[in-house]
Amino acid sequence: MAEIYQAVGKLSDSENLHKKGLSAKEQSLGAGHRSVGLTRHQLGLLYVEQGKYNEAERALSRSLQIWEATGGGDSKETATHLAHLGL
Asked: Which domains does the chain carry?
């Protein structure tokens, strides 16, 4: 639903849902779970769209850390994470 809100321009609603989902995933799966990293990545991209660049950098950096720690390593997805960070 958060991605639908984002697609139709309801960015604040999307952000709220992403944050709720992130909190639930962290509590149930742990902060270092790959699914948490994916949600952080999506939230980071939303922050970019909103012009919240500091928040975007934090979310995308943490997402990359999680991805690498859970076996992402040298993969296409890691390259995508790096590209979104502008590295």
From this structure: 2-85 (1.25.40.10)
pLDDT for the residue numbered 73: 66
- Residue 86 has what pLDDT? 75
Residue 31 half-sphere exposure, CB side, CA atoms within 13 Å? 3
3-state secondary structure 18-54: HHHHHHHHHHHHCCCCHHHHHHHHHHHHHHHHHCCHH
Give 3-12 contacts, CB < 8 A, sequence gap 24+.
3/42, 6/46, 6/49, 11/46, 11/49, 11/50
